[in-house]
Amino acid sequence: MPTEITVGVLALQGAFHEHLLLLHQASTRLRQRNDSEVRWQFTQVRNRQQLEACDALIIPGGESTTVSLIAARSGLLEPLREFVKVHYKPTWGTCAGLILLAESANRTKKGGQELIGGLDVRVNRNHFGRQAESFERDLHLPFLERELGRDYGPFKGIFIRAPVVEKVLATVPVAQAEVGESEETVFAPPCDSLKTEEEREPVMVMGTLPPHSRSPGENPLEPVQTNEAAQEIIAVMQHNCFGTSFHPELTQDPRIHIWWLEQVKDAVRKARPDGSLRK
Predict the structure, then answer these.
(1) Is 222 an active-site residue?
(2) pLDDT tens digits, the chain, 279 residues: what are they?
(3) Residue 136 annotated to the active site
(4) Which of 18, 95, 114, 257 is labelled catalytic?
(5) Does the active-site annotation cover 249?
(6) 67 exposed, middle or buried (CB, 10 Å; 0-12, 13-18, 19+)?
(7) Rounded to 10 degrees, what is the CA torsion of 133, 134, 138, 143?
């Protein structure tokens, strides 16, 4: 009998519907591969009870300050931190979701914003510019190539007011001492149940992009001349957390969602005492 795994999509604001559509596409592709171990369930998450029913979670693109404000007002912010940093359930953040999963964020609005944390990185909000400066790029993502083999090809990355990972952090206290008390820098609150420094896995860089810069009025669809030696980090993974600067949910390409569901399945298996997906 297949194991039921429930994946939630935080539905407070942003592109949650688009994620749900691609999750259904991804699960269909997995069934076509004769993967009968899992019966996938996908659901919107707006309160603590819905979150507690989930085995994994996606935090979609949107407006990170708005999402954190709604989460705080609805009493969901602390349960989200517990989900990510106490229970270590698989969590994927896209664009605004990456900002919320970061342990530190720069260029925040006046008064800052609340972060969930989980990824030992510092992000720069809106690094790629305003809405009018949105752009698309073909991305070469090695983790997809390893998983998909001959089905691998460039993935269309859609960047809309996107953040970038400007620094991989050793530990949060080190980062706070390094950055200081800047009004534009915020940190996720510490978590008593967080793993010790020795137990925490390092951040893995999963995707990069050559530096992106434009002159005002330049066509955002035209290629940019860049220094290939320098790369900007646009995808990272650490233990149960995965984050992307771009919006896979705004494409018709389910490959990253397929890959992530495989990671979720493995995480659920490892969390079982017998290391299996059997009921």
Answers:
(1) no
(2) 778 999 999 999 999 999 999 999 999 999 988 777 899 999 999 999 999 999 999 999 988 989 999 999 999 999 999 999 999 999 999 999 999 999 999 866 655 689 999 999 999 987 665 665 678 999 999 898 876 665 668 899 999 988 999 999 875 554 444 444 455 788 898 876 556 565 678 999 999 988 764 433 444 444 444 444 478 999 999 999 999 999 999 999 999 999 999 999 999 988 877 666 755
(3) no
(4) 95
(5) yes
(6) buried
(7) 120
